[in-house]
Amino acid sequence: MEYKAEYITEDIKLSSYEDKFFKSDIMFDHHMLVWFISGETKIVQADATYFFREGDIFLIPRNQLATIINYPKNGQPHKTVVMHLSVDRLKTFYANRNVVPKVSKHQKIHCFNNHPLLESCMASLIPYFGMKNLPEDIATLKITEAISILRAINQDIDNVLANFDEPGKISLIDYMEKNFMFNLPVEKFGYLTGRSLTTFKRDFKKAFNTTPQRWLTQKRLELAHYQLAEKKKKPVDVCYEVGFENLSHFSYAFKKHFGYAPTSLISG
């Protein structure tokens, strides 16, 4: 995989993937505003799947789990401009604004298509990539501009951007049953359910009577079996969507668990 990234600051980058595809399971520490230049992205969350292509603009809220698969398309690399809207920067922005956000338990990806104001803002960043010694205040101005545009075109966006709460302790069983297909370190699952690693493992053992890794593997294989047998999906697609890192590991684990290869479900 050939990956290239150019930065204006650590919060603004031009990202390019040239290979067949790139897949990752991510928990976003910052809100991410993304503008598509070329290629295609598939984002799979627990309750929704999104496809983004050339010209699309979208905002991914922080602390959200997602499987992201990036594809080149039509001979063009997967290329995006990505702007991180960090908590620290947003706290500074909202410091003198009287905003009381409504807290929602369900944060969705916000899609803006090719809105002209946002597109103009993101496109104006292109000349800055590759420049050396760019003043920090220029990047700050561009991020402030983007936040201001988001607030102008979406009256509910303050409920996302001005919410600085960290995850509180929630039902471990409900959360894991909904998000087991995301291949993240156990520490991250602990954080997102409001627990230390030690407490998470203790509560997990109490709830499921097994270790997190054994339970996660079994749940992912059961979901994969359903997707193959009932939905007639291809093993290569199922592999990444249920939380495995590569097809060979998935095929090995599947055959060890069920006694037959995943391909036998689509060839029969």
Summarize the structure.
This protein is an alpha+beta fold and 268 residues long. The protein is built from eleven helices and ten strands.
CATH architecture label name of the largest domain: Sandwich
Counted by DSSP, the helix tally is: 11
Envelope shape: globular
Identify the strand order in the major beta sheet. 1-2-9-4-7-10
Main sheet makeup: 6 strands, antiparallel
CATH class of the largest domain: Mainly Beta
- Distance linking N and C termini: 34 Å
Give the amount of beta strand, in percent.
Answer: 15-25%
Q: What are the low-pLDDT stretches, counting only 5+ consecutive residues below 50? A: none
Average pLDDT confidence is 90
Radius of gyration of CA atoms, rounded to a whole number: 20 Å
**Number of individual domains:** 2
Structural class: alpha+beta
Helix content: 25-40%
Helix-strand pattern, N to C? EEEEEEEEEHEHHHHHHHHHH
Predict the CATH topology of the largest domain. Answer: Jelly Rolls
The total strand number stands at 10
- Describe the oligomeric state of these chains in a short phrase: single chain
